[in-house]
Design goal:
The protein is an alpha+beta fold and 127 residues long. It is 20% helix and 45% strand. It has one domain: Roll (Nuclear Transport Factor 2, Chain: A), CATH 3.10.450.
């Protein structure tokens, strides 16, 4: 619920062990195509010809409820996306490992975690 004075939502840490683990597990298996289809993921494809998502890891201390009213369980998670950026200058393949911070938004559908959005933090990259 938004604070009427600031307009910002109150975030509460996800403390339940079962719900916490469910979110961590769901984030760890996010499909690479889902990441690359995000707005910033499309920017990655301009940065490197064939970016490869190696994995996604949520920070256990970065899991927060954004809405828990009316049987709604929405959350946000701070995560790291691990990737390989493949460049092909003059037919010489150059692959560089990299990682980017990410924000994951999702919700519970019953006891199942649904990922709604992946936002990559790309302020450090200029395209």
């Amino acid at each position: 619920m938004a604070n009427p004075e600031t307009g910002f939502s109150r975030l509460a840490p996800v403390e339940s062990g079962v719900e916490r683990q469910a979110i961590l597990d769901a984030v760890s298996v996010i499909a690479p195509a889902f990441v690359l289809q995000s707005d910033h993921g499309q920017k990655l494809t301009r940065l490197a010809l064939n970016p490869t998502i190696e994995g996604v890891e949520a920070s256990p201390d970065g899991l927060f409820w954004t809405d828990r009213e009316n049987n709604t369980k929405k959350f946000e998670a701070v995560a790291t996306i691990y990737m390989t950026l493949n460049h092909h200058p003059a037919n010489n393949t150059l692959a560089m490992s990299n990682s980017l911070p990410a924000y994951i938004k999702g919700h519970f559908d019953g006891d199942k975690v649904r990922i709604d959005k992946v936002e990559l933090e790309m302020d450090s990259y200029t395209l």
